[in-house]
Amino acid sequence: MTRRRGKEEGGAQLPADFAAANSSRSGSGYLSKPEELLSSQEKSPGTKDVIVNVDYSKKAEAESSKQFSSDTSPMMRKGSKGQGVALNSVDQRLLDASLQFQRKQGKNTIDVWWLFDDGGLTLLIPYLLTTKKKWSNCKIRVFIGGKINRIDHDRRAMATLLSKFRIDFSDIMVLGDINTKPKKEAVAAFEEMIEPFRLHEDEKEQDVADKMKEEEPWRITDNELELYKTKTHRQIRLNELLKEHSSTANVIVM
């Protein structure tokens, strides 16, 4: 593409014949030779030179960029006076959660619940957090499941593993009661929470239950609730332990 400097930049004035000659090259970058250009004496009578001024100033580029961005950028919500609209409670909580990792955390804990061997990823994430200045004062606590008669053995084995990973930790807690049944109050609270989402097909006619399954496949059936009863109770028990041991932690990694 041929760049033409205008009169304002101190360049030579270009007649329209020259512009037309170069545009006919289909953008191949071809520059006309001097002998191919017609002098003012060789032009046909009645023709006039048309001066093309191209403004290459930064101001023109900025205005062009601004016009393009205004057409392609997403719209932002503004109030009647051009001020930002206040976020609702849900959006505010999401914003606070997204900014949590950017705040200085102080001297608190990062609790790691390593319930199965995932190759060390659950331990790596908290370690990477502590390498940042805002998280450097936080201590890592590790929670693992185990048996009551092997608590000391499991703690030493975990300490050896963390040493191999070169991860500093403040404490290792072996939970020997992780597989016990949850409290009745916790189970009742869980059942109350999922009650609006249950199907209760055993209490309905077969055709009515089948129609509800088809129209609302997300509802929890009695069969599913019984099928996953063991896993559900384990998660309820784990929730109890989390509230008991990690309620004051800055971050819980599971």
UniProtKB/TrEMBL annotation:
Basic and acidic residues composition bias: residue spans: 1-10
Pfam family, one: SLC12
Membrane-topology descriptor: Multi-pass membrane protein
Highest taxon in the source lineage: Eukaryota
Presence of the UniProt keyword Phosphoprotein in the record: no
Keywords (A to Z) from UniProt: Membrane, Transmembrane, Transmembrane helix
Presence of the UniProt keyword Glycoprotein in the record: no
Subcellular location: Membrane
One GO BP: potassium ion import across plasma membrane
Primary residence: membrane
Domain SLC12A transporter C-terminal: 51-254
Official protein name in the record: SLC12A transporter C-terminal domain-containing protein
